[in-house]
Design goal:
This protein is an alpha/beta fold. 45% of the residues lie in helices and 11% in strands. Helix 8 packs across helix 11 (294-308), helix 11 (294-308) crosses helix 14 and helix 13 (408-426) packs antiparallel against helix 14. The protein is elongated and about 105 Å long.
């Protein structure tokens, strides 16, 4: 149990050194004015330190007040790091408090004569919670309630309405704070200022200056993803290099993906997945140093989204151990005259052999014929040389530059139409654009703009990929990861048919490997 969990545990339930239920009942019999009260503490955000100091302070204050009033605290309810204004948040201890108030006693059997909170907004922030709490509280007579305003009479006539007014004011203030926070966040973003609460990975504590080693790792990872590397491989590399997140946690698939898809990498700002743009609809450039170019960032995000296919399921989790697993196909001719054509698997070679791995057709029980076996190192070497030669030929023959994006004018026209629609709607003198017409036409224009921007991003990704392909293919091949090499092979080869032969000490025959090249489409 961590320190925070240990603190919360101590601040929940029966306080230490509290007399037994029988002893408390004897105390009540001797002193009819004694009140057994319960304390409720809650905080929405436990802070960056996460040490539960907020609820600890609340319980300390309530205990001090109870001592001054001559009350006995018999139970403590604690909801740490939980909002009271969000319907989706379930406050377990608050629900337990309501149940115990209705029952009239704590789970251990201590009677409940009253409730304490540092402020009423700790207990409730929504009208429904206030009504439920008041109903549970007043289910028994003569209870006391204490908060920052002192002892309150919840049974008084009109107090229910007073409470609802207080809840409404509290809820209104909460929404104001949220709105001010959103507006402030967006205003800072439009000014190009950093809005990160934590130091972003890749930058120093000032959130502007690059941290060289981290920035280099991100830059390399971006180039690798464009070239075909998986997020799983990048995650493994960062873990092996000893990198941790700015919050001090080991990198996982999701956090690496989050880093690489952050528009901050190229100097842009995003809010809820949308780039922040200026009055001319151009992306806002931040005050911090960028790590990659916008073109490279568009390419990275396009690659990652393409693999995810919008399912939300992480792709690339399976990392093959051998280069040609599933790419090699068995070319053995079966008894009925048809080729086996089963995908071959990579296996570890026997220890007495000179090579480390081999490829073989699966056993008959697994759908193969178990007739084809190929030495791994020489098979890999031959196919790699063929693929490199093919890639170099293609790179030399095709145009070096992707044509300019040809939809800039339609995008500009759609943006102008949207801006004009908004202007006419806001203009009181314009009578032909009412609310119904505005909200009917606006989504159509917004959808058109969004689709064109997606197309623009894909085009930028193609340009970045084409530029990366112009590098020295043979030289860069050695530095590619296994997944990158497999992706490159699958781009130019549909399969490699391996004809039986060459097993054991026989001379390896490269002619028994038949590449099936992809045709240009």
């Amino acid at each position: 149990m961590g320190k925070r969990e240990e603190t919360i545990s101590k601040l929940r339930g029966v306080p230490e050194a509290l007399p037994s239920v029988e002893e408390v009942r004897a105390m009540l019999a001797a002193n009819p004015h004694l009140k057994c009260v319960v304390c409720y503490a809650r905080i929405s955000f436990d802070g960056r330190v996460k040490d539960a100091h907020g609820i600890e302070d609340q319980h300390r204050d309530m205990t001090d007040h109870a001592r001054r009033l001559g009350w006995l605290v018999v139970y403590r309810y604690t909801d740490n790091d939980k909002s009271a204004s969000k319907e989706s948040v379930v406050r377990d201890d608050f629900e337990q408090l309501l149940a115990d108030l209705t029952a009239g006693a704590t789970p251990e059997g201590y009677p409940i004569h009253g409730v304490m909170a540092v402020n009423d907004d700790r207990l409730y922030r929504r009208p429904s919670d206030w009504e439920r709490y008041l109903k549970a509280f007043t289910s028994k007579e003569d209870r006391v309630y204490h908060d920052s305003n002192g002892v309150q009479d919840l049974y008084a006539e009109g107090f229910e309405i007073k409470g609802l007014v207080g809840v409404a004011m509290s809820l209104s203030e909460t929404r104001k704070k949220q709105r001010r926070s959103r507006n402030s966040h967006r205003s800072r973003a439009i000014r190009g200022q950093s809005t990160s609460a934590w130091r972003p990975f890749g930058w120093e504590d000032d959130k502007v200056t690059l941290r060289p080693k981290e920035a280099d790792a991100i830059r390399t990872a971006a180039h690798d993803v464009i070239a075909g590397a998986s997020i799983s491989e990048i995650t493994r590399q960062w873990k092996e290099a000893g990198f941790i997140t700015s919050r001090g946690n080991p990198f996982q698939y999701a956090t690496v993906k989050q880093v690489l898809m952050n528009a901050r990498l190229c100097g842009y700002r995003e809010i809820k997945g949308e780039l922040v743009r200026d009055g001319d609809d151009q992306p806002i450039v931040g005050e911090w140093e960028s790590i990659v170019t916008p073109k490279e960032w568009f390419a990275v995000t396009a690659k990652i989204r393409e693999r995810g296919r919008g399912t939300g399921v992480p792709r690339g989790g399976l990392v093959h151990k051998y280069l040609l697993t599933g790419i090699l196909r068995c070319g053995n001719v079966l008894e009925d005259g048809t080729p086996c054509n089963n995908k071959m698997i990579g296996i570890k070679a026997n220890d007495w052999l000179k090579y480390q791995h081999a490829y073989m057709c699966k056993k008959t029980v697994d759908g193969g014929c178990n007739k084809t076996y190929k030495r791994g190192d020489k098979t890999d070497d031959i196919i790699e040389k063929l693929v490199i030669a093919k890639l170099e030929k293609e790179a030399a023959s095709r145009a070096q530059d992707v044509p300019d994006w040809d939809k800039a004018e339609p995008l500009d026209r759609a943006i102008r139409s949207r801006n004009e629609l908004e202007r006419r709607w806001h203009d009181d003198e314009d009578t032909d654009i009412d609310d119904e017409a505005f909200f009917r036409n606006l989504p159509v224009l917004e959808r058109r703009i969004k689709d064109l921007r997606i197309d623009q991003a894909k085009h930028e990704a193609l340009k970045a990929e084409a530029e990366a392909a112009q590098e020295d293919i043979a030289k860069s091949w050695k530095s590619k990861t296994l997944t990158q090499k497999r992706e490159a092979i699958k781009k130019v080869l549909s399969a490699i048919v391996a004809v039986p032969g060459g097993k054991g000490n026989k001379t390896f025959d490269p002619d028994l490997l038949k590449p099936v090249w992809r045709t240009s489409e």
